[in-house]
């Protein structure tokens, strides 16, 4: 068997957002949001299109949207590419899903909680080791919750999950393993197949059960993702190469400048010692602290000044003028 990649938006919506996927979504959400506890017993899969009810608010398309417990809304987004300002997009979608519940003139007490569940195929929080992280609004100093039950953010970072099939223990482990590896599997592992909802997810993900148009849409989406990843990789490589080239050029330029200054310094010392004899360490230190321009001017002065006292005075003047 060959399975479609649940990390693409097309496959994710088909597996978790189809009309007959309610039991799959319940199992998945309980596993991810509620640590495999059967908190959600029923839900309603909604149109993931967020039509704005507030003037000036943009339209938004989500991967899956559902209402649980009759009031609480869960918005789910599967993100493969680490695009610019994605973190702000997550915040935007969550707050808009919260705000569009009200029509003009309605009371704020009609607002119900929103959970934003985001699954990423890249690391969003490099300083965190956990695969699943949860955020809510808190007071900055004492960490007191502020309406924590109203707006919650849950992130699943797939690259951080490194358990093998034999190491899977919880329902949470099994769903994350499915998300990360289903595309590479050629049969349903027994460890996953013993969960009815997971077995059903594999059935929906089986390419043999897709019609030609669906397979073509999926292929186009995967090609687009690969192209975007390639473009991002190329841009990163070009940026690194340009940075290295610029660093080398700057290093060469600095090296030339330093070499010129060292040459000027050696020439000045040599000319002075020819006229006045060996220079004291103090005088040599003063000369070395002069800029390249000051060294050049001092060199010219050596040929212009006739007496040693005048030369010493000029040297001290240049030193003080740094």
Note down, in words, how this protein is organized:
- By secondary structure, the protein is an alpha/beta fold.
- The protein has 2 domains: 9-210, no CATH class; 261-320, no CATH class.
- It is 49% helix and 12% strand.
- The chain contains 10 helices and 8 strands.
- The protein has helices at residues 9-16, 22-33, 86-99, 171-181, 190-193, 196-205, 212-276, 281-288, 292-304, 308-320; strands at 43-46, 49-50, 60-61, 64-68, 72-79, 114-120, 132-136, 151-157.
- Helix 3 links the parallel strand 5 (72-79) and strand 6.
- The longest helix has 65 residues, at 212-276.
Coarse morphology = elongated
The residue fraction in helices comes out at 40-55%
How many helical elements?
10
Largest sheet features:
6 strands, mixed
Read across the widest sheet, the strand sequence of neighbours is: 1-4-5-6-8-7
> What percentage of amino acids are in beta strands?
5-15%
Number of strands: 8
Q: How many domains would you count in the coordinates?
A: 2
Distance between the termini: 78 Å
As a whole number of angstroms, the C-alpha radius of gyration is 34 Å
Order of helices and strands: HHEEEEEHEEEHHHHHHH
Supply the helix-strand structural class: alpha/beta
The mean pLDDT is 81
Give start-end ranges of low-pLDDT stretches: none
């Amino acid at each position: 068997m060959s399975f479609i990649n649940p990390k693409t938006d097309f496959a994710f919506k088909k597996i978790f957002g189809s009309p007959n996927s309610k039991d799959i979504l319940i199992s998945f959400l309980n596993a991810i949001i509620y640590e495999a506890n059967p908190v959600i017993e029923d839900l309603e899969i909604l149109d993931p299109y967020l039509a704005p009810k507030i003037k000036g608010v943009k339209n938004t398309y989500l991967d899956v949207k559902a209402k649980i417990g009759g009031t609480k809304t869960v918005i789910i987004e599967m993100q493969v590419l680490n695009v610019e300002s994605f973190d702000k997009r997550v915040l935007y979608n969550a707050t808009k899903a919260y705000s569009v519940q009200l029509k003009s003139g309605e009371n704020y007490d009609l607002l119900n909680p929103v959970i934003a569940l985001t699954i990423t195929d890249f690391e969003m929080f490099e300083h965190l080791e956990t695969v699943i992280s949860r955020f809510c609004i808190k007071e900055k100093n004492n960490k007191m919750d502020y309406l924590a039950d109203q707006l919650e953010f849950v992130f699943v970072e797939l690259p951080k999950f490194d358990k093998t099939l034999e190491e899977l223990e919880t329902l949470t482990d099994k769903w994350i393993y499915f998300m990360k590896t289903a595309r590479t599997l050629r049969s349903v592992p027994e460890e996953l197949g013993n969960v009815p909802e997971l077995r059903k997810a594999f059935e929906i993900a089986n390419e043999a059960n897709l019609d030609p148009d669906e397979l073509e849409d999926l292929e186009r989406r995967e090609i687009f993702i690969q192209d975007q990843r390639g473009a991002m990789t190329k841009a990163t490589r070009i940026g690194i190469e340009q940075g290295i080239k610029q660093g080398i050029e700057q290093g060469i330029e600095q090296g030339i400048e330093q070499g010129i200054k060292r040459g000027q310094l050696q020439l000045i010392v040599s000319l002075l010692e020819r006229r006045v004899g060996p220079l004291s360490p103090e005088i040599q230190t003063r000369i070395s602290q002069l800029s390249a321009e000051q060294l050049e001017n001092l060199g010219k002065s050596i040929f212009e000044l006739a007496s040693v006292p005048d030369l010493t005075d000029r040297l001290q003047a240049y030193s003080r003028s740094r």
